Amino acid sequence: MHYISVHDNWLFGDDTPFKECKEMAVFNDLDFLWVNADINIFKKMAASMGLVPGEFYNLWVNDEKLTRRPFCCDYTIRVWETSIRQIKQVLDASSQ
């Protein structure tokens, strides 16, 4: 129950749970990465924010999560790098 109660504490500027607990850090990483799971999810997230996918890409790759709560393990770093690269390729290909 504790994990559920603090999983969005970052919204209030409290990153303590993610620094103190590896499981919470991984959860935070995965909670962020779901947007990159599929280009259609990425596009729907962009649309939900009133942005075109390219605008959302620029916002996403500069999200404060990347500096405030950096990815906690090699696996989530690789997932981020691979998935964001694939999204960029799709967006670049669709703009041509």
Question: Can you offer a commentary on this structure?
Answer:
The protein has 96 residues and is mainly alpha-helical. The protein has one domain (2-94). The protein is built from 7 helices and no strands. Helix 4 (39-48) packs across helix 5 (53-60). The longest helix is centred in the C-terminal third of the chain and has 21 residues, at 74-94. The chain is elongated. The protein starts with a helix and ends with a helix.
Topology:
Blueprint: H1 2-6, H2 16-20, H3 22-33, H4 39-48, H5 53-60, H6 65-68, H7 74-94
Tally of separate helices: 7
Oligomeric assembly: single chain
Return the structural class. Answer: mainly alpha
| Beta-strand percentage range | under 5%
Give the helix proportion (percent range). 55-70%
Give the radius of gyration: 14 Å
Pick out its properties.
96 residues
Give a quick summary of the entry.
The protein has 96 residues and is mostly helical.
